[in-house]
Amino acid sequence: MAAAGAGRLRRAASALLLRAPRLPARELSAPARLYHKKVVDHYENPRNVGSLDKTSKNVGTGLVGAPACGDVMKLQIQVDEKGKIVDARFKTFGCGSAIASSSLATEWVKGKTVEEALTIKNTDIAKELCLPPVKLHCSTSLLIPTPK
To answer: Which UniProt keywords apply (predicted)?
Structure first.
């Protein structure tokens, strides 16, 4: 099961990264945009920052980077014996949108089964945070790792 879960996680990470838009050089020099208040709230008051015990059999860890801007995100979930996500933690190195997306994702997955959590799309996160299209790649933190 561990090998199948790890394979599923890698495929999910690859699929999300392939969907992330690539920014043309002219957009990289665009004027600064103001963040929506939801992004600012999750950036200034991030929820569920930290790590879980990665050696625990009911903890899954996912790691992804967004090549468009250099963001790196780690998401961990802890699943109970019934398959429900009972805890989620993240660590993100990146912009405010990436940190806010990771924070929101941890809130959304708690209480869901892994299968339910896998239905969350990065576009759902981006829509909730009112991210502009140029920041869609920042919402790839929703990769739901599968426990070992």
So the answer is: Iron, Metal-binding, Transit peptide
Is 69 a catalytic site residue? yes
Per the residue annotation, which of 17, 23, 69, 72 is the catalytic one? 69
Catalytic residue, chosen from 138, 142, 143, 144, is: 138
75-101 pLDDT, tens per residue?
999 999 999 999 999 998 888 888 898
The per-residue DSSP string of 64-110 comes to: EEETTTTEEEEEEEEE-TTSBEEEEEEEEES-HHHHHHHHHHHHHHT
Contact 64, 73 (CB under 8 A): yes
